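Here is the promised in-class demo. Please do not try to memorize the tokens; focus on the logic of going from shape to residues.
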């Protein structure tokens, strides 16, 4: 409720400031103007074609980047020679702003969907690599030794120790990766494309349409928040075996009127 009240207060203050001309409506349109643009986009259906393209590019990059990053991080953490090659390359990619590769992907793959999926994939893959790699490296070595003492091989160690231990790191990384996936898709479309929300943002910028720009940003933020909420629910279900995710609800024992509860009922 506190967050909702703060959001409502912000929107009301913004609306009043715009109507009182304390801010220039041309540069910062009122929330009502932005809402009107959103309604018109939804009513005409023009935005949904571009919306589907952006979501498809982001989801494809998210799925591929998560799979490759997790597998590569797990392999690097359990096989040291591979880590000596892959870890410096990932550290370099993590140090530079990866969105600067968007023009290069456009040159290589064209202005279609492939270049946007590739950029989303790269952004997500680096995040998920370090989430998995760090999670495996943080595993208690004594657990690994116990499995090996009981006769377990490399596959048993990965399945019984590394995968459960790294689950929390991967779940947290997924929340960050969602934003990076949409960043890659929208930035790639903004650089060069003929469809997508990034293409519409580029059009809004070229026409100095601040209301359309804010409406498209609000649409992207709403989708990311929805996916963030969904991954939060998935994280609680996935890690339900951890104590902090267990919901312990103790139901009171009904006691008839005029009778004290037995000791067993008091526990």
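The designed amino acids, position by position:
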């Amino acid at each position: 409720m506190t967050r909702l009240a703060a959001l409502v207060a912000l929107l009301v203050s913004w609306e009043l400031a715009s109507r009182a001309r304390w801010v220039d409506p041309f540069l910062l349109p009122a929330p009502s103007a932005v809402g009107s643009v959103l309604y018109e986009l939804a009513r005409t259906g023009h935005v949904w074609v571009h919306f589907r393209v952006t979501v498809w590019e982001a989801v494809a990059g998210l799925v591929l980047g998560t799979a490759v990053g997790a597998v590569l991080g797990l392999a690097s953490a359990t096989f040291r020679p591979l880590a000596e090659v892959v870890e410096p390359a990932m550290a370099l990619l993590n140090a530079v702003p990866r969105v600067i590769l968007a023009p290069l992907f456009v040159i290589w793959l064209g202005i279609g969907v492939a270049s946007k999926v590739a950029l989303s994939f790269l952004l997500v893959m680096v995040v998920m690599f370090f989430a998995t790699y760090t999670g495996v490296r943080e595993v208690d070595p004594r657990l690994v030794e116990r499995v090996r003492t009981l006769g377990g091989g490399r596959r048993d160690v990965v399945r019984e120790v590394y995968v459960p231990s790294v689950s929390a790191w991967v779940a947290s990384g997924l929340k960050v990766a969602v934003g990076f996936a949409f960043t890659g898709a929208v930035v790639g479309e903004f650089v060069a494309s003929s469809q997508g929300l990034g293409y519409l943002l580029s059009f809004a910028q070229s026409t100095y349409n601040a209301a359309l720009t804010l409406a498209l940003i609000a649409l992207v933020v709403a989708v990311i928040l929805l996916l963030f909420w969904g991954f939060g629910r998935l994280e609680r279900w996935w890690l339900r075996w951890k104590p902090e995710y267990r919901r312990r609800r103790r139901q009171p024992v009904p006691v008839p009127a005029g009778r004290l509860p037995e000791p067993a009922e008091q526990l």
